[in-house]
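Progress note, sequence design subtask.
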């Protein structure tokens, strides 16, 4: 079974996270497949690239069970975390550098680092059953996936800090109010709304979309985001191997069982 499904629809390329039994939690294999799929899609120059997911959740971030599986030694855990967070950040940067518009069809909850996949999208259609929540302070992790590298620029520093300090849950309506989603609708209408957007784009000059995206995500801005993501990863690695973080992961896993 592939962990990322690719479908071609009306000139757009859709990438579906396909680990529904684990709520599309991120693993190295899934992120590697996603990165490869993005690069293959880039060569085809689609009208748009659309991110979506199978099952009830969009993605619940890094799989904590995966971290716990690597806690036998500090070096092993640090190596795993370094590769996983690095792979996530590579995916986010590849989305930001994608030449065509990037859309997200968010069918359900988005937590932890997976939020970066939504932050990297230009336009987001969000199910009214979805929510966005950090959870880092519940486990002891440092934020990754753009929670500090990208979110403050989108919604303001004060609100971004408040959400993370209090582990606030943003409803779909909250996400739209803060500008993180362009449209909120019933789950069954999420993909049709994306299709409507793609159809509208296909009737216009693709070269304009390319120029627009390249202007917005020019090299200096991409480099700034990369530096911020690198700092996120460094602080993530600083906290991941601490005893209190291990205890936090174990407790969180018990509560989620």
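Output:
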């Amino acid at each position: 079974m592939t962990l990322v499904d690719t479908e071609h629809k009306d000139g757009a390329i859709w990438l579906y996270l396909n680990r529904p039994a684990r709520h599309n939690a991120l693993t190295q294999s899934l992120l590697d497949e996603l990165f490869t799929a993005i690069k293959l899609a880039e060569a085809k120059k689609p009208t748009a690239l659309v991110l979506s997911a199978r099952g009830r959740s969009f993605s619940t971030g890094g799989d904590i069970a995966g971290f716990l599986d690597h806690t036998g030694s500090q070096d092993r855990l640090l190596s795993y975390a370094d590769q996983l967070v690095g792979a996530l950040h590579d995916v986010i940067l590849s989305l930001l550098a994608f030449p065509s518009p990037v859309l997200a069809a968010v069918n359900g909850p988005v937590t932890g680092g997976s939020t970066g996949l939504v932050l990297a999208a230009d336009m987001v259609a969000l199910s009214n059953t979805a929510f966005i929540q950090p959870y880092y302070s519940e486990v002891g992790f440092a934020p990754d996936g753009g929670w500090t590298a990208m979110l403050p620029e989108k919604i303001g520093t004060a609100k971004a800090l408040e959400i993370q300090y209090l582990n606030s849950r943003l409803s779909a309506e909250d996400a739209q109010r803060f500008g993180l989603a362009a449209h909120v609708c019933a789950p069954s209408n999420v993909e049709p709304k994306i299709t409507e957007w793609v159809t509208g784009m296909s009737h216009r000059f693709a070269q304009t979309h390319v120029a627009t995206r390249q202007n917005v995500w020019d090299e200096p801005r991409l480099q700034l985001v990369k530096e911020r993501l690198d700092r996120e990863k460094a602080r993530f690695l600083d906290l991941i191997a601490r005893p209190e973080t291990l205890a936090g992961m174990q407790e969180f896993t018990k509560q989620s069982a």
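The longest strand covers residues 4-9. Work on this subtask will continue into the next period as scheduled.
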